[in-house]
Automatic annotation (TrEMBL), chain A:
An example Gene Ontology biological process: regulation of cell division
Alphabetized InterPro entries for the sequence: CAP/MinC_C (IPR016098), MinC (IPR013033), MinC_C_sf (IPR036145), MinC_N (IPR007874), Septum_form_inhib_MinC_C (IPR005526)
Assigned keywords, A-Z: Cell cycle, Cell division, Septation
UniProt protein name: Probable septum site-determining protein MinC
Domain Septum formation inhibitor MinC N-terminal: 7-79
Protein's gene: minC
Species for this entry: Parahaliea maris
Quaternary context: Interacts with MinD and FtsZ.
Automatic annotation (TrEMBL), chain B:
Alphabetized UniProt keyword annotations: ATP-binding, Cell cycle, Cell division, Nucleotide-binding, Septation
Species this protein is from: Parahaliea maris
GO terms, molecular function: ATP binding; ATP hydrolysis activity
CDD domains to which the protein is assigned, alphabetical: MinD
Function: ATPase required for the correct placement of the division site. Cell division inhibitors MinC and MinD act in concert to form an inhibitor capable of blocking formation of the polar Z ring septums. Rapidly oscillates between the poles of the cell to destabilize FtsZ filaments that have formed before they mature into polar Z rings.
Residues bound to ATP: 11-18
Name of the molecule in the record: Septum site-determining protein MinD
GO biological process: division septum assembly; negative regulation of cell division
Quaternary assembly: Interacts with MinC and FtsZ.
């Protein structure tokens, strides 16, 4: 509303990365549907980067990128970019209109599914991005409620929220997240890969919690935890939520 | 110094215009010169609820476009001394309200009035953002149901990030929760959220709870703000809310089911 028509800003977002290990046109739609069904709330409308990095050189030529994008969209995903496109697919990838990203330095971890997850489909791995962990730890302190539609990110350190985090709001930190109020939205700690990061809150009613790329959705929270003071930490490869 | 108060909600039909009319009237009744502005360009509702629809000649957009002076467009309320209405245009689209235009009109109104009450359109887009942009205080009108609470939460986020006060890093817009269409019987039956539930989620101070009442509909059909009906519980609840807005202490009323209604039901009455 004020004078400039727009501002260009840099911003960090957490995105789902679909790593394509091989593309079997007949199998792909079914495998993807299965994967999405495990956590529909997470995948509905979520931006996705498709990484072609793991494709072997000879597989590369055979992939029908347009068809694959259609399958992704049919499942409610929103592909936004390809990463590490092999030489043979460059022009086909450009034609899709998506952005092309260079090969990622990120060492993402497989996305943690809710407890009832089916065994992993071998061809499709979903992970989130990580970068090297910084040792500088400034803390960001928020004193007002974080409202639906708002996103707060504590870059390089911890986040302290002295108020509730509403449903539809998202708080992220490279370090720990402390919420001295109710957590009804999404909280993602250690978003750049710090596996020792934790989430603490006074009233656990989250839509989604994540530490270093391992996710849990609200339906995975048991009655012993729900609406109670709780902490979330990463125990090996398993996200554990315990009462405080 | 004049205070600009926006009455906003996100969700439509929750009682913004009803509340703007009642609160604006209440402020004027208490001796504060007040103007209520209808920001709902294209729909124009405030003049109906205030019963002055026949006297609309020029409107807010005419003033912004320099087609009429403020004096020509302001309608003096016939019942309440010191109260004026600035009606919205019914014919123009919402883009007619420009930031510069609104700023200019508000600056002029600030010279003349103690309170400027802005009746916001529904939604969280441009029209609603324009209504709240210049606000010093916000009355967030919420019904005791999940979707309304969620929208109020979003509009509170917008107040924090997109208002002029937020942009310029001044003191934050002062927030008030006004819970309307509250029906204690339906709360007890678990069909509606309770006052405590809503306060817990939105975490802002409670300005008032207005009971669901036929008197409100009757009042708007007659073009008389319900606050003028001191018999009506909704009218009394709005009076309390205005007193609180002015810094007075008033205990909250009408939060529980009416005793009378309870006995009526006990005796098998029609409730
Ligand atoms: N306390 C109440 N009890 C009963 N009915 C009410 C109450 N408050 C408002 N209403 C009714 O709800 C309807 C919508 O009210 P109003 O026009 O004030 O809402 P609004 O938020 O301004 O709507 P819009 O978003 O369309 O501008 C009207 O019919 C009004 O009479
Ligand atoms: Mg209205």
């Amino acid at each position: 509303m004020s004078s400039p028509d727009f501002l260009l800003k840099g911003s960090t977002v957490t995105v789902v990365v679909l790593e394509l290990h091989q593309y079997v046109p007949d199998a792909f739609p079914g495998l993807l549907a299965e994967r999405v069904a495990q956590a529909p709330a997470l995948f509905q409308g979520s931006p996705v980067v498709i990484s072609l990095e793991p494709l072997s050189a000879d597989d590369g030529t055979a992939v029908d990128l347009g068809g694959m994008l259609d399958h992704c969209r049919d499942q409610g995903l929103r592909p936004i970019a390809f990463r590490a496109v092999p030489e043979a697919l460059q022009s086909a990838a450009t034609d899709t209109g998506l952005a092309l990203l260079p090969a990622g330095g990120g060492r993402g971890k497989p996305l943690e599914m809710p407890a009832e997850s089916a065994p992993e489909a071998p061809e499709i791995k979903v992970r989130t991005e990580q970068q090297p962990v910084s040792s500088v730890r400034p803390t960001r302190t928020i004193t007002r409620p974080v409202r639906s539609g708002q996103q707060i990110y504590a870059e390089g350190g911890d986040l302290i929220v002295l108020a509730p985090v509403s449903e539809g709001a998202e708080v992220l930190a490279d370090g720990n997240i402390h919420i001295y109020g109710a957590l009804r939205g999404r909280a993602l700690a250690g978003v750049h890969g710090d596996a020792s990061a934790r989430i603490f809150c006074q009233h656990m009613d989250a839509e989604l919690i994540s530490v270093a790329g391992h996710f849990l959705l609200s339906d995975a929270l048991g009655d012993s935890i729900l609406r109670k003071p709780a902490q979330v930490s990463l125990d090996g490869d398993v996200l554990s939520v315990s009462a405080l | 110094m004049a205070r600009i108060i926006v009455v906003t909600s996100g969700k439509g039909g929750v009682g913004k215009t009803t509340s703007s009319a009642a609160i604006g009237t209440g402020l004027a009744q208490r001796g504060h010169s007040t103007v209520i502005i209808d920001f709902d360009v294209g729909l124009r509702n405030l003049d109906l609820i205030m019963g002055c629809e026949r006297r609309v000649v020029y409107d807010f957009v005419n003033v912004i476009n320099g087609e009429a002076t403020l004096n020509q467009a302001l309608i003096k309320d016939k019942r309440t001394e010191g109260l004026y209405i600035l009606p919205a245009s019914q014919t123009r689209d919402k883009d007619a309200l420009t930031e510069e235009g609104v700023a200019k009109v508000l600056a002029e109104l600030k010279q003349r009035f103690d309170y400027i009450v802005c009746d916001s359109p529904a939604g969280i887009e441009k029209g609603a953002q324009m209504a709240l942009y210049f606000a010093d205080e916000a009355i967030v009108v919420t019904n005791p149901e999940v979707s309304s609470v969620r929208d109020s939460d979003r509009i509170l986020g917008i107040l924090q990030s997109k208002s002029l006060r937020a942009r310029e890093g001044q003191d934050a817009v002062k927030e008030h929760l006004l819970l309307t269409r509250y029906n204690p019987a339906r709360v007890s039956a678990g069909e509606m959220l309770s006052v405590a539930d809503v306060e817990d989620i939105l975490a802002i101070p409670l300005l008032g709870v207005i009971p669901e009442s036929q008197d409100v509909l009757k009042a708007s059909n007659q073009g008389e703000p319900v606050i003028l009906n001191s018999e009506a519980l909704a009218g009394q609840a709005y009076s309390d809310a205005v007193d609180r807005l002015l810094g007075e202490d008033r205990a909250h009323r009408f939060l529980d089911e009416e005793k009378q209604g309870f006995f009526k039901r006990l005796l098998g009455g029609r409730g």
